[in-house]
């Protein structure tokens, strides 16, 4: 089973439209164990052995975004803004709290005896927002809750021209789940005639799917211009 610990402390709670500069996760977004707004299903797929864990953001209730520590084998609020799973031991940061549980081999909860043994690094398809430079909007009406742009994506190939599909911040949980399922389906599509997904930016809103750029445009546009 996978143990889920929500709300490691009160100040991490944020609204879905929170601006990047105000996000508490900026304090530890460089940590490889932090996977951003990765879906529960995708997180579980990474946790293979007992003690494997990831830290992610999720919508816990009524549109409020909280942190969730997912462990393979409960958080509480603290008005002093310290972080803890068990009130008997507190740390000044999430990173220090996780390091403590790894180094001491202390169970997170006595009822489950779940322990942190190995953090799961972010998979290659989880990318940084900072690596995406939006150029212009190309398809504003592609969907009610998403907008498509041409963009530059900084990767090992340099600055590559790509398509960036951004989910609007006002999208609800169901819409975000559908958006992430679309990204998952694209990750498993590997065909020379299908555009490849290059990654998904998940650290904060908006969630962005980055895809290969197609010079010819959409199939429907090509057929309108050139016939059958």
Write the layout of secondary structure elements.
Layout (H helix, E strand, L loop, with lengths): L1 E5 L33 H7 L5 E10 L2 E9 L21 H11 L13 E2 L6 E2 L4 E12 L2 E10 L2 E10 L5 H15 L9 E5 L6 E5 L6 H8 L2
Parallel strand pairs: 2-4, 5-9
Antiparallel strand pairs: 1-3, 2-3, 6-7, 7-8, 8-10, 9-10
Textual characterization of the structure:
There is one protein chain. This protein is 18% helix and 31% strand. A 6-stranded mixed sheet has the order 5-9-10-8-7-6. Strands 1-3-2-4 form a 4-stranded mixed sheet, covered by helices on one side. A hairpin with a 2-residue loop joins strand 2 and strand 3 (64-72). It is α+β, with helices and mostly antiparallel strands and 228 residues long. The longest helix has 15 residues, at 173-187. The chain has helices spanning 40-46, 94-104, 173-187, 219-226, and strands at 2-6, 52-61, 64-72, 118-119, 126-127, 132-143, 146-155, 158-167, 197-201, 208-212. The chain has 2 domains: 2-119, SH2 domain (SHC Adaptor Protein); 126-226, Phosphorylase Kinase, domain 1, CATH 3.30.200.20. The model is unreliable at 6-16 and 74-78 (pLDDT under 50). It contains 4 helices and 10 strands.
Return the CATH topology of the largest domain.
SHC Adaptor Protein
- Radius of gyration (CA) equals 20 Å
CATH A-level architecture of the largest domain: 2-Layer Sandwich
CATH class of the largest domain: Alpha Beta
Arrangement of strands in the largest sheet: 5-9-10-8-7-6
| Order of secondary-structure elements | EHEEHEEEEEHEEH
According to CATH, the homologous superfamily of the largest domain is SH2 domain
**N-C termini distance:** 52 Å
GO molecular function, one term: ATP binding
Family: Belongs to the protein kinase superfamily. Tyr protein kinase family.
Pfam family, one: SH2
EC number: 2.7.10.2
């Amino acid at each position: 089973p996978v143990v889920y610990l929500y709300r490691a402390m009160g100040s991490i709670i944020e609204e879905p439209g929170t601006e990047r500069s105000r996000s508490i996760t900026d304090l530890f977004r460089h940590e490889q164990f932090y996977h951003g707004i990765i879906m529960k299903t995708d997180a579980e797929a990474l946790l293979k052995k007992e003690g494997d864990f990831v830290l992610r953001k999720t919508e816990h209730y009524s549109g409020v975004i909280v942190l969730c520590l997912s462990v393979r084998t409960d958080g509480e609020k603290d008005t002093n803004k310290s972080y803890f799973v068990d009130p008997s031991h507190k740390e000044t940061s999430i990173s220090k709290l996780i390091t403590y549980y790894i180094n001491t081999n202390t169970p997170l909860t006595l009822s489950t005896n779940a322990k942190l043994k190995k953090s799961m690094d972010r998979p290659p398809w989880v990318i940084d927002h900072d690596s995406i430079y939006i150029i212009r909007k190309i398809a504003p009406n592609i969907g009610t809750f998403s907008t498509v742009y041409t963009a530059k994506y900084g990767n090992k190939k340099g600055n590559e021209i790509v398509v960036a599909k951004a989910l609007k911040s006002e999208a609800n949980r169901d819409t975000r789940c559908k958006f992430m399922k679309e990204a998952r389906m694209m990750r498993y599509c590997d065909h020379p005639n299908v555009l490849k997904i290059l990654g998904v930016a998940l650290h904060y809103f908006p969630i962005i799917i980055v895809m290969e750029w197609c010079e010819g445009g959409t199939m429907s546009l090509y057929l309108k211009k050139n016939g059958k």
